[in-house]
Specification:
single chain, about 450 residues, alpha+beta, Aminopeptidase, Alpha-Beta Plaits, 2 domains, 6-stranded mixed β-sheet, 13 helices, about 35% helix, about 20% strand, binds ligand BES, binds zinc ion
């Protein structure tokens, strides 16, 4: 056994305790009442970096939530790796569906349950522990490392965007590692070369100046809830086609290899997707394969509708206001700003006369495509093979990490997206979890990746 392996094996228990300590801090970035928790979670990451021996480990204040930075640049002549992660998490509602409290890390079987267990404290902590292990065993790291962690990823990542754009010189590096993605199954290691972008919007419809008696005014009054239904139905049809003129214009045709992989589905990923959703068939654009639909097609989803009467019993009222939360996922060539313009125009066009419609963009971020065959990707592939016993597959994923596109564009270096999340990790849902074996393998894999970068 190597010294590194011995160190990791001996310290697995403490690594897990360090993760649990971080998880207990409810760092929900979108809820103002958690501002103090955000700071505590950021400071926790600074402390981790300091203990490892990073220099200038500190918080960087922004107009939003703080960034965490640290560096170790004592390997002259070696490449520099920039590590990215996020310490913020999603809200926990509906809280009654959690089997154990959302911020009390709990182990059941091979899984650690807690909000953020995977996304992204678990995945970020495993990189810290790979760095710690290499540093402790060797007294040095194989490459130079900068770490930049944000606290606003789940809220759109505006502050890190500003920082990367205004201080690219402070982030000088040869390669970026993002550990915030997943793999399709435990025995299917994956490297991600594409992510979708996103716009998240709020559509508000206003009718009469106040709620109205539905008998007195029904027949002549505008109903903002019904208006929303008309708008929503006009945006996407039952076949999954989005009716926003211009939206599909820039969607680039996938490569022949991609189409072959998606259409043939030799690894039976479609079956895994159905099983994970607990449904018997896919919805959406039947003329595209399911993998193309989730990884490479624009999609439009309604997340919530607010308005009217939802209590017990009956109340005959025509509401004055209604709102819907609607988002679009965008393949990399469809830019978020343009998509928002097209969306806003279409929503207004669909609204019947007599109501006032307002469309707000809550957040937006670009998709990304990276080169699957860069040397760092090959290093990551070799590391995955070492610990998962198989060549990884190169795939896209449908989620969004807005800063990935920025790193790619502004720093102009290869971006390696290697994560260890699993489809049943319940990201953004009740009972989020992380597999302990994935956590421990992830530590070893990332350590191996660093050694292979030199
Ligand atoms: N870790 C996810 C992104 C992800 C999920 C990538 C699954 C690949 C597979 C990330 O934390 C996330 O959820 N991002 C948000 C971004 C948004 C709020 C800008 C998302 O995708 O909804
Ligand atoms: Zn994440």
């Amino acid at each position: 056994m190597t010294q590194l392996e011995a160190y990791i094996t001996e310290n697995e228990g403490r690594f897990l305790e360090d993760l649990k300590g971080w998880l207990r801090i409810p760092s929900i970035s979108t809820l103002p009442e958690h501002a103090a928790d955000i700071w505590r979670a950021a400071q926790y990451a600074v402390d981790q970096l300091t203990v490892i021996g990073f220099e200038r480990a500190r918080l960087i204040e922004t107009s939003g939530h703080p960034l965490v930075y640290g560096e170790w640049l004592k390997a002259p002549g070696k490449p520099t790796l920039l590590v990215y992660g996020h310490y913020d998490v999603q809200p926990v509602d509906p809280v009654d569906l959690w089997h154990t409290p959302p911020f009390e890390p709990t182990i059941r079987g091979d899984n650690l349950y807690c909000r953020g267990a995977c996304d992204d404290k678990g995945q970020t902590m495993l990189v810290f522990k790979a760095l710690e292990s290499l540093m402790t065993v060797n007294g040095t790291l194989p490459v130079n490392v900068r770490v930049l962690i944000e606290g606003e990823e789940e809220a759109g990542g505006e502050s890190i965007e500003h920082y990367v754009k205004t201080h690219p010189e402070r982030l000088g590096c040869d390669v970026v590692l993002i550990c915030d993605t997943g793999m399709p199954a435990k025995d299917l290691p994956a490297l991600i070369y594409g992510l979708r972008g996103i716009i998240y919007t709020e559509v508000e419809v206003r009718g009469a100046k106040r709620d109205l008696h539905s008998g007195e005014y029904g027949g002549i009054a505008p109903n903002p809830l019904h208006t929303l239904a008309i708008i929503i139905a006009g945006l996407k049809d039952a076949g999954g086609h989005i009716h926003i003129p211009g939206l599909y214009d820039k969607v680039r045709k996938p490569t022949t290899e991609e189409l072959k992989f998606w259409n043939e589905d030799m690894l039976h990923i479609n079956g895994l997707l159905l099983e994970e959703m607990g449904v018997s068939q896919f919805t959406g654009e039947a003329e595209y394969s399911p993998m193309e639909r989730i990884w490479a097609r624009p999609t439009l989803e309604v997340h919530g509708i607010i308005g009217g009467f939802t209590g017990e019993g009956a109340k005959m009222v025509i509401p004055a206001v209604s709102k819907a939360k609607i988002s679009l996922r965008l393949p990399p060539d469809v830019k978020s700003e343009e998509a928002f313009m097209l969306f806003e125009r279409r929503v207004k066009e669909l609204a019947p006369a007599g109501v006032e419609v307002k469309v707000d963009k809550i957040l937006g971020g670009e998709g990304v495509m990276v080169m699957p065959d860069s040397p760092p990707m090959q290093a990551a592939a070799a590391a995955l093979k070492e610990y998962f016993g198989k060549e990884p597959i190169f795939i896209r994923e449908g989620g969004s990490i807005p800063v990935a596109a920025l790193f790619h564009e502004v720093l102009n270096v290869p971006v390696v997206m290697m994560g260890f999340g699993l489809p049943d990790d319940n990201l953004h849902s009740p009972n989020e979890k992380y597999s302990l074996s994935q956590f421990y393998k992830g530590i070893r894999t990332v350590a191996s990746f660093l050694q292979r970068l030199t």
